[in-house]
Amino acid sequence: MSRALRAVAAAALLAGSSGSTAAAASPPAASSLPTGQRSGVLPGPDRIGLLSQSPWVVAKGAFELRLQVSAAHLQTDRLQVVVYPRLTTRTGFGATLAGQVIGPSVYSSGLLALTSLISDPSGGTDVTIPVNQPAPSGGLPEMFVSGGSGVFPLQARLYDQGGLPQGLPLTTYLVYAAGTSVATDFPRLDVSLTIPVDAGTSVDAAGRTKALAAGQADHLARLVSALASYPGVPLDLAVNPQTLDALAEDGPGGRTTLAALGALATHGTDRVLAAPYVDVSLRGLVDAGLVDELARQLAQGRATLASALHVTPAAATWVTAGHLDLATVGALVAGGARQLVLPDADLTQVPFSVRQTTYAQPAELSGGRLPVVGADTGLAVHFTNTGDQVLAADQLLAELAMIQVETPGRTRGVAVLAPPGWYANSTFVSTVLAGLTSNPLLAPVTASQLFRDVPAGRSSQEPIVRSLVSPRGPAAAPGDPNLLREARGQVDAIAAVVPAQTAEISALARQLLVAEAVDVSGRRRVQILSAVSAAFDHLRTLVALPGATSVTLTARQGQVPLAVLSAPSVDARVQLRMSSQKLIFRPFSPPGGHCQVPTPTEEICQLTLRGQNTTLKVPVETRASGVFPFDVTLLSPDGAIVLSHNRDTVRSTAVSSVGVVLIVGAALLLGVWWVRDIRHGRRAHELVPHPGDDEYGSGAAPAIPPSWVEPSDVINEFFDTPPPDLPRPSGFRP
After folding, report:
1. Contact call for residues 631 and 602 (beta carbons, < 8 A)
2. Which domain holds residue 148?
3. Prior bond to 27 cis, omega within 30?
4. Of all helices (H) and strands (E), which one includes residue 634?
5. SS3 for 55-66, per residue?
6. Report field, pTM of the whole predicted structure over 0.90
7. In whole angstroms, what is the distance from residue 219 CA to residue 254 CA?
8. Which CATH number belongs to the domain containing residue 370 in this structure?
């Protein structure tokens, strides 16, 4: 606000009021209030805080302010309350929030001596303005309001004895309701309020759930108590499931808070929204290709909420403050979402023809074809973690009333969604819920009721369609996707191998989900993933193969003994895979399992290990003699994760059928040769004349008998004759 505007505002505060209130003079004369009571004003710097106020005044009544005033000069400083003309637009409302309240006032209390203010028994000091009713004796003057409902800016400010303003003004609003909806025949504005119940991710270095810090536990206890004080006000609770696990670890106090929250969700009008197990970037998981992880987050969140609060989360209506894209919306739809509440800034604007006032109706999401409500971004500015929480809450209620009086004759509704990072303050929540109770202008509803009660917007008889605005930047990454996939595979393997260890597996699965939280640092994420890997390494010690061994087979068919080791009472489920290019495997039924032979050289068995040492006798048939490798691999039941591997040695001394044929053939050949040799030697000894005999004396070559056969012809005839048909072993390949 410029200095000129500040000067104008100061002049307006000192200007005379309308009606029966006299103009202030300079130096001002202090108005009087009943004396004899402690004023409740504290010594200190000039400051005004709001402790409470009337959320509205109907037709006629008293508007009450309870202020916390401190002043540097208690005896001489003065307090003035000024009301300005009713607001006609939200733009004007926004200007008053920034302190730009200028123009003539419609009411002034005059300058009130601090020593004459009435103290309130619960603290602070009271200022009561009669509206459309006679002023009490010695009290503040009456304020006249006519016409329909309206929102009037109100400022309270301190002045010194010279009439100069001291400190900053307090700006709040007087909400005037001409009557109830029955009297005015105007519908109330549906208000869907979502309150986060979230203490952040509370885990140790390994990702295991730990109890909340003392301050966090006390904060949640006060918040739940505030919610329980207004059980008749419907709203949505965005509960962080991991926070519930942390409360359960927090001892008697945490369990008491948990029970109170469960009773509120079970027996009250509040609805518990579906949520991932921890606060994650929905779009970040989808962009990283971790859609399955998002599904697991939703499933674990749903299970935790149902178990801790004994309610079924409202999965059909998804409320989120995080930016979405169509791919993420598709993942949410797969998880059960049927209507969405998103920040209005994440959606394209509605047509100009319906933008003359606040657009407060559902629309249709382009591409997703889902009903969607844009949570009013302007309302989110009232959610702060610092400052006067009562004032912020009453300003929120006043702006909601401002939306209703824009077009009081139409059925409309708005979603109120806190921005990310807002830590629900019990004082703020109590003030808002008190202001919504029996409010003549506002009707608190759940998000699901908002979609049912308020008709979708239309323009030129066509449904209003809104699209998702392109992301303004990259989504928060959940870490290295490959490391997360590897860790997920390890967790799944543990669950498959030792399914009986339910509690340990569930804790490990939650640890991995915690690693994906947006409020977990990169260093802590690495620690959590290391803890998951350590658990997987421990699994390897529970089931294993003994060291490599050597087996000798003395026959073509035999059994190869194998042993699988496991910890006692584990009942591990594993897959055993055996292979060798020199063996032919035969199916068999081991104890506690079954086997199949997909190829002759491979066999796969599914086993349940019920003892410390499970011994198998695997029937095989050798394809050849010699020494060759025999691979044995122990895997998870689905065969995805290797748990142990051995390369054993098989020595076969058996002779194959081909070898027998060759040996027999060689023996026959040798026998024939010997026979022929013997016969040839006998003929040469008895029939052939000695050189020098008369028959051969002439020196001519002896005549060859007709029956003589050359030995070489016998050999050739033997090899030219095909061998007899012999039985061949099954699976034989020449």
Report:
1. no
2. 3-179
3. yes
4. strand 626-635
5. CCEECCEEEEEE
6. no
7. 11
8. 3.20.110.20
- 323 neighbors 472 (Cβ within 8 angstroms): yes
CA distances, 363 to each of 442, 449, 550, 724 (Å): 21, 15, 74, 89
pLDDT in tens, 180-190: 777 677 999 99
Q: Strands of 642-652's sheet, edge to edge? A: 550-553, 642-652, 626-635, 572-579, 602-609, 593-599
Cα–Cα distance measured from residue 97 to residue 107, given in angstroms and rounded to the nearest whole number? 19
Residue 2, pLDDT > 50, answer no
Backbone angles phi, psi at 556, to 5 degrees: -60, -35
Checking DSSP bridges between strand 165-177 and strand 150-159, what pairing results, if any?
Answer: antiparallel
φ, ψ dihedrals at 153, nearest 5° = -65, 145
Q: Is residue 471 part of a domain?
A: no
At 242 the three-state DSSP class reads helix
Q: Note whether 172 and 425 are within 8 A (CB).
A: no
If phi > 0 it is left, if psi is from -120 to 50 it is alpha, else beta; for residue 78 that is: beta
Tokens at 47, concatenated: 């400051």
CB-based contact 491:296 (threshold 8 Å): no
pLDDT at 7: 35
**C-alpha to C-alpha distance for 68 and 76, rounded to whole angstroms:** 18
Residue 408, domain member (yes or no): yes
Tell me the torsion sign for CA atoms 198, 199, 200, 206: negative
Contact criterion met (CB below 8 Å) for 18 and 103:
no
Q: What is the DSSP letter of 643?
A: E
Q: Tell me, what DSSP letter sits at residue 179?
A: S
Q: Is residue 172 located within the same domain as residue 205? A: no
What distance in Å separates the CA atoms of residue 283 and residue 327, rounded to the nearest whole number?
8
Give the start-end residues of each E strand in 376-507.
Answer: 413-417, 442-445, 458-459, 462-463, 465-466
Q: Which residue has the tokens 């003589």?
A: 708
CA end-to-end span of the chain, whole Å? 99
Judged by DSSP in three states, 614 sits in strand
Strand runs labelled E in 473-570: 543-544, 550-553, 557-566
| 56 closest CA partner among 334, 471, 383, 405 | 405
How would you class 36 by CB atoms within 10 Å of its CB: exposed for 0-12, middle for 13-18, buried for 19 or more? Answer: exposed
- Render pLDDT for 276-294 as a digit per residue (tens, 0 to 9): 999 999 999 999 999 999 9
Q: If we measure between CA atoms, which residue out of 59, 89, 72 comes closest to residue 161?
A: 72
- 544: which residues sit within 8 A by CB, 6+ positions away? 564, 565, 566, 634, 643, 644
d(Cα 272, Cα 280) in Å, to the nearest integer? 18
Q: Quick one: 423 and 504 in the same domain? A: no
60 domain-assigned: yes
How many CA atoms lie within 13 Å of 456's alpha carbon, on the beta-carbon side?
15
* d(C-alpha 606, C-alpha 199), whole Å: 45
Q: Say yes or no: 164 and 249 in one domain.
A: no
- CB atoms under 10 Å from CB of 705, counted, come to 9
Residue 675 binned pLDDT confidence (cut-offs 50, 70, 90): confident
